[in-house]
Write a structure and sequence with these properties.
Distance between the termini: 51 Å
Largest sheet: 6 strands, parallel
CATH topology of the largest domain: Rossmann fold
Helix content: 25-40%
Order of helices and strands: HHEHEHEEHEHEEHEHEHEEHHH
CATH superfamily of the largest domain: Response regulator
CATH class of the largest domain: Alpha Beta
Shape: globular
Number of strands: 11
Structural class: alpha/beta
Radius of gyration: 21 Å
Strand order of the largest sheet: 2-1-3-4-5-6
Number of domains: 2
């Protein structure tokens, strides 16, 4: 079945994503359609200084906790975690932090996560101040995190200008990010990947203790056309080989991630769509770590290190009937030894190991930065 699907319909590529996502400037605001100019940087200044990671500690209590995991990973790699809730350095005054530590590198969480002028469940006291002073320190290598590149290009371009951003850390394919966020400089993107806390991943369950079903989960809507069609079909009983886990909604009442991992570990297959933007979403990694076989429409040339062999790619045009048949086939051919190996390989995505790789990649770009 999987081979038939792959040969009768075209699987997506990164080029397909770029071609089908045309950006239309908003007439009510300026729009960054070209890469921002690269700020100057004096690599000899503060060469041996501390490394600071400015984050939002409360993100560990958000419905999904990846924003906290990236900071914890950097903290384990030697960065000083700064911001409200962090015990070592709770200050949110960026200029004070720079003067106090004279850092070599400073990375700050995506502005939308701490900007209390935006709607959402945010703590007013966690907002960083004097961010505009960052750009006045030429010896500090300055980065921010860019997660959803398709959203609010002007807002994020202005934020990068405000801080004098040297580089961006992104979870998704750099060519897709550069297309959706044309203000970034492709040569100054660092790709990381979504992570899991390996201590939250349940012990591997053999097939005999798993449901002979595929799990479909996540939000629906225009950004997720395939998932939305599949959810609709499940609702009316057209996909008997798939079970649905309703989205819990976005909140800050405690992370749902550990429970989601426990649920995944009870299924043989997970259907993990990648959105209209072709993003390598976290659930692909989580499902693999929990021993699931993964059905996804992730672009074929966005190859996930170590675990790509666990993915069965399908085109976004696939019908619910075809997905259901594929899920049944993958459940029937589920092999414990193979899936236990894939789950073991997914340890590469542990947040602490990922933090060390990210810290190393930042050093490499800092040393080679050209403006």
């Amino acid at each position: 079945m999987s081979q038939d699907i792959a040969t009768t319909s075209d699987l997506r590529t990164v080029d397909d994503i770029i071609r089908k996502n045309h950006l239309v400037p908003c007439p009510r605001e300026k729009y960054a359609t070209n890469p921002l100019p690269a700020p100057s940087f004096d690599s000899e200044l503060n060469y041996d200084g501390d490394n600071l990671a400015l984050g939002v500690e409360s993100m560990r209590r958000h419905m999904t906790d990846e924003g906290a995991q990236i900071m914890d990973g950097l903290g384990d790699a030697g960065y000083i975690l700064c911001g409200k809730g962090y015990l070592l350095e709770p200050s949110t005054d960026v200029e004070h932090l720079i003067r106090e530590y004279v850092p070599s590198t400073l990375i700050i969480q995506d502005k939308r996560e701490w900007d209390t002028n935006r709607k959402g469940f945010k703590d007013d006291k966690a907002r960083f101040k004097n961010v505009d002073q960052m750009k006045h320190y030429p010896g500090v290598f300055r980065l921010t995190i860019l997660k959803d590149a398709h959203q609010r290009q002007t807002y994020h371009a202005d934020a990068a200008m405000e801080m004098g951003c040297h580089a961006w850390v992104t979870y998704y394919h750099p060519r897709i990010v550069s297309h959706l966020a044309p203000y970034v400089r492709p040569e100054h993107l660092i790709r990381t990947y979504h992570t899991v806390n390996i201590n939250d991943v349940p012990k591997y369950r053999p097939a005999s203790k798993r449901k002979n079903l595929a799990l479909l989960s996540g939000a629906s809507g225009a950004a997720y056309p395939l998932r939305t069609r599949l959810l609709a079909s499940c609702t009316i009983g057209e996909m008997p080989n798939a079970g649905v886990l309703p989205h819990p909604g976005y909140h800050a009442r405690g992370s749902n991630t550990p429970e989601f991992l426990r649920v995944l570990s009870r299924f043989k297959v997970a259907i993990c769509t990648s959105s209209v933007y072709g993003y390598a979403l976290r659930k692909i990694i989580e499902a693999t770590a929990c021993g699931c076989r993964v059905i996804t429409d992730l672009p074929t040339d966005d190859v996930l290190p170590f675990i790509d062999g666990n993915l069965t790619r399908v085109p976004p045009s696939i019908s619910p009937r075809e997905v259901d048949a594929l899920a049944s086939e993958l459940c029937e051919s589920y092999d414990d030894a193979t899936q236990a190996d894939h789950a073991s390989f997914a340890r590469w995505y542990d947040h602490l190991l990922s933090g060390k790789r990210l810290a190393s990649d930042i050093v490499i770009l800092r040393r080679s930065y050209i403006f």
